[in-house]
Structures are given as C-alpha cells and as structure tokens.
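Researcher: Here's my situation. A collaborator sent me these components and asked whether they could plausibly form a single complex. I don't have experimental data yet, so a predicted model of the whole assembly would be a useful starting point for our discussion.
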Amino acid sequence: MRISVAARRKNALNDLSGYLFISPWLVGFIALTLAPLLASLYFSFTNYDILSPARWTGLENFKKMFFNDPRYWKSVKATLYYAVFAVPLRLGVALAVAMFLNRKRRGIAAYRALFYAPSIVGDSVAVAVMWRQIFGGEGLINACMRLVGLPGKTLWLADPRFAIWTLILLAAWQFGSAMLIFLAGLKQIPSELYESASIDGAGKLRQFASITIPMLTPIIFFNLVMQMINGLIVFTPALIITNGQPLDTTNFYALYMYRRAFENFQMGYASGMAWILMVVIAGLSALIFKTSGRWVFYESEGR
Amino acid sequence: MRKRITSALGAVSFHALAAVASVAMIYPILWLAASSLKGPSEIWRKVYSLIPDAPTLENYVRGWKGFGGISFEIFYLNSTFFALVGTIFTIVSSAFVAFGFARIEFRGKKILFGCMLATLMIPTQIQIIPQYIIFSKLGWVNSYLPLIVPKLFGQAFFIFMFVQFMRALPRELDEAVAIDGGGRLTVFTRVIMPLMKPALFTGSIFSFYWTWNEFFTPLVYLNRPKQYTLSLALRSFSDPAGLTDWGAIFAMSFLSLIPVLVLFVAFQRYLVQGIATTGLKG
C-alpha cells in the first residue's frame, strides 16, 4: 500500500515536472497555433477587415472562391503546375548527384559543400533579386545567348510561357538538402547487396532499379511529400522575381492569399483560403504518417 | 597495371566532371560577387564575366547610403539583432522543452509529442492571418515583438532535433544526480546541457541563417523603413517601379549574403550532419 502511495506521488511529481518543462511549447501551441487555427476557421465564414467587427456570412467566401473568382482557380493551377514540375525535378537532380558523389574519393566533401551552397542562400531575397536580373531583358541569360550567336532577346519574366519556369529552375537549383538526405540513405545500403548482384550478372542499370530505388523508397517518398508541401506554399520568389505576373501565371496560392489578407484586408476570405490549404496539407501529411513505418523517429517514439 | 590505369582515368574523369558541375552550381553566386565590383559601364557590357576589368567599390559606397535617408547600416543592425535574439530564444526554449519530452515520463506525453510533430507540418502562411489579428489587437504590429516573442515557445524542428540527441545520452547520468539529491533542473543545466553542446551549436547555426533569411513574417509585421531587415530593405531597394541602380543592388545583395556564406564555409560539416541525421529539410 505504502509503495503505491510513493509510486503515485512519484508519478504526480513526474507529471508536474514534465508539464513544467514543456510549458513554453504548450503555451505557444495553444495560444499561437490551436486557438488561431480555430479562430481562422470561424473567420472563414465571415466578412472581416480587422477594423470593424466580423460579420457572419455563412458559406459566402467559399462560394465566391469556388464559383466566382477566376483568379483563385488560376492561383491553384499555377501552384500545382509549379509543385508538379519543381519537386520531381529537384529530387531527380538530388538523387543523380547523390549517386554521383556516393563513392570514396578525395575531395568528395568539397564537392558536396559546393553543391549544397546554393541551398543555403537560395531562400533569401538577395538571391531572388539576383534571379530577376539573371533572367531580365538585359540579363545574364540573354547575354550568354548572344555570346553563342543566339538572338538573346527573350523577356523571360514577362512572357507567360517562361516566367513560371524561371521559378521552377530556381527551386531545382536548390537540391542540396535532398541530396544530403539521399547521400545518407545511400550509405545505409549494405554493399553486399551490390556485390552479390554483380556476381549474379546484374548490370548497373539493373542494380539501380532493383536495389537502390527499392532501398531508398521510404526516403524518396518522405521527401516527395515534404517538398510538395513546401512547393504548395512557395511565396518569396513569386513576390520578388515575377510579382505574380505575367497574366497571373505566377500568382501562387500563398501570394494570392497574402494579397487578399494584407493588401485588401479581406481576412475572412483569406482565412477560407488558408483552411482549404490546411486540409490539403493535412491530407498529404496523413499520407506520410500512414506509410511511415520505416522512418527514424517513429521507431524510437514507440518505447 | 591495366587496372591501375583505368582507375586513374576514372579518377580524372570523375574530378573533371565534378569540378565543372560544382563551378556551374555556384556560378550565379560568383557572378553576383563579380558584378558588385564592376563599374557602371562594365556591368552591362560584359554581363557574364566573372573577373571585373577595373574592380571598384563604388557600388558598395552608393548602396550603403540606402534609401529614404536610411543607410544600410540600420538594416544590417536590425537583421543582426533579429537573428541573434531570435536564435537565442529559439535554441534555449527548444532545449528546455526537448528535455521534458526526452527525459520525463508524464501523462499525455505521447499525444502531446504527436501534436508537436504535427505542428512541423503547419506552414506559417496558414497561421499568420489569425496571429496577425491577435498581434494587431495587442498593438504589436510595427514592432519586433511579433517576430521574436513566438520564438520563446520553442520551434518544433529544433525540439525534435534535440529530443533525438538527448535520447542517445545514457539515463544513468540522470539517476546519479537524483541520488546526490539533485532535481530535474539540475540534471538539465548541469548534465544534459553541457553534453548537448554539439547539437546546440548545429541548431544555432540553422536557426541563425533561417532567421537571417526570414522574409514573410517581417514583411507582414514591419511597415516602417527604419525597422526593415535586410530582406525587406533589398526588396524596396530593387523595387521595379522605382529607378533601379543594379550595381548598388548587387553590392547590397552580396553584402547581405556574406554572414550566411561565412557561417557556411566555417561550419558546413555541422550543417551537413544536421540535415543527414534529422532527415528533414535544411
């Protein structure tokens, strides 16, 4: 009996100190994540400009979004187009470079660092500004084209066919993090697998298809979904480089939402947009968690 | 003999390919640095060249003056303040929270840990509208408070990273302190924190360069040019509507990248490990 009292007291003490230590996060979670999310769910059914009180309008915002706002659908289309091309391109390059660098040679660390360098600065406004100049009418690309005898007069950023591709290229250029994750994954694959495969007469291509890809599948999949989520919220390059133009072809979801919220102060409408995005991202995340049997932290969480 | 020749050939072709590819990768960054040193006529004449004919610092002198009577010194100081304070707040609070999740068994831990991981998936863009409403009601818009106060509550990425690290430390350490009559706080400050140094260091580098590059939240909360961080200043400076002095823009852009590039060159090993071990984006 006594033991159980002591044990109970110990448990209570554990509860107390546990909550004490996580209290900063818990307060932030409730005040800056949970409550705001619920509040924005409410606002999405209202007309709200912050200055005057929110006015309940029911499903009006969503009706407008889905049936009466061509710019909304254009932003959805632009965002999907961007994510569908930028993410696989980035991951494909990342995997190719990781395989290229996955060998024991002198200087590997230096190459790895150089390939990773663009990723460390790529998100910055400075690089976005630079990108605008690279693809400008008198920019680097056109100058290089003239150097090899091409006309070099394309207005990359003003042409609806090309503008979004300059942004996709910027995303592909920053394949560094994915490359590092793939490199770590490749090192985990036991070399005996390749040895016995080559004894059995399997060529390089066969080894890639039957060993490398299957062994890396969890990592590839995890990265694919995570990067998709990041692709859906792309903001800075679209604002700085193309400003959503030309003809709204780069007016991505996050940019359009920002404009509705902070330029037009339509907080209700923007909250509705945020919630739609939230549902999509929750769906993608659920996909990760459902298939996550093989990643690191879930295993150690189980104890 | 033949084998040795083929392997030497392999090495040469590998290095040739790798060297060309890595130079191509960083060419835009080198080009930015080179362009910032070119004079006004050269900047448009030989756009692609990496070595200026007559290097000059005049772009830096002109750019440093800034705009609207505010020099880049102010923006530089603002960014430094934001990145340093933000990093300290983030790392200390995240380590504190991580200790709770990693070392103490309490009721509801599993669910809360799951919630914490779930917040990794919720992008700022979704939370910013209601958060903006809260901060504007508090009268915090146009100050640094909405940017740095939330960092006191820990950041999921770093909490997760530190939890992973703490779990690898032997439990016997905690017990030894408990036998000596020390409490949980003693374990945290005297035992765990000193052992955490490598992880805290890696975390600090990540946090610093993320905060340094942060753009979206400052864009939303800071409207007065005097408060601008470098990112905001560069955006206004290169506004396509105004007259654009590309030489000065190149100079200030490159200047804003220097702290990040220096950190990267000095500590890239830590960054590489950090990304490889957490398996999350960097």
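Model: Some features of this prediction you could bring to your collaborator: The first helix of chain A runs from residue 2 to 43. Confidence is low (pLDDT under 50) at residues 295-303 of chain A.
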